[in-house]
Design goal:
198 residues, alpha+beta, DNA Binding (I), subunit A, 3 domains, four-stranded antiparallel beta sheet, 7 helices
Length: 198
């Protein structure tokens, strides 16, 4: 059975609709869906006519219901909150921006990423994560490995608990070190009997 592919036609300065039927108009491009062989033939023809074209499997189109799909497959914690997988910030459902871990725009152009997403496409629950607005804005369409590492760790709440414990321990150690340093040089501030340095 042949897969359905999507052809996007970006007309540059040409405002007219590409040759052929079955196109849908979007803000800056025309879109056509069809069997892979037909899509490849149209892409080749239009490229010769000066249009910029890209085509990819239909499963890599951004879904209109991916946010609802995320909340249906990912439940909040015991307090009814979600957390950003990148920074650990606790979020109400209304504050969550559902992020495509492997970005939709990157998958369209990168055949390697298309092969990597072998499951049910870019809108699969495996590719959707909760993020705060700031982290989602910073990540944008980046495919950098650091974001995937952060997301893989951030899916486990204990990672952020451990991080917070380590931060508290480091702050406590710094305070103790500063206090002991102060006590060595200024014994009158000390609660211990400490000798003066010679």
């Amino acid at each position: 059975m042949s897969k359905t592919y999507v052809l996007e036609v970006h007309p540059y300065k040409k405002k007219r609709k590409p040759f052929g039927s079955g196109y849908e108009k979007y803000s800056t491009y025309w879109r056509f869906k069809g069997e892979e062989s037909l899509v490849r033939a149209r892409a080749s023809y239009l490229k010769k006519k000066g249009y910029k074209t890209i085509f990819y499997p239909e499963k890599h189109i951004r879904s209109n219901i991916y946010r609802a799909l995320y909340f249906r497959t990912h439940k909040p914690d015991a307090l009814g909150k979600y957390h950003c997988v990148y920074c650990g910030k606790r979020l109400k459902e209304s504050q969550v921006t559902v992020d495509h871990l492997i970005p939709v725009s990157a998958v369209k152009y990168d055949k390697r990423l298309q092969r990597k997403i072998t499951y049910s496409g870019v809108n699969s629950p495996k590719n959707l994560v909760a993020a705060c607005f700031d982290c989602n804005s910073r990540k944008g369409a980046s495919t950098a490995r650091i974001w995937r590492i952060k997301a893989a760790l951030g899916k486990h709440r204990w990672v952020f608990v451990l991080r917070n414990i380590l931060i508290v321990c480091l702050i406590a150690a710094a305070v103790i070190f500063l206090y002991l340093t102060l006590c060595v040089h200024f014994p009158e501030y000390s609660i211990f009997d400490m000798p003066r340095p010679e």
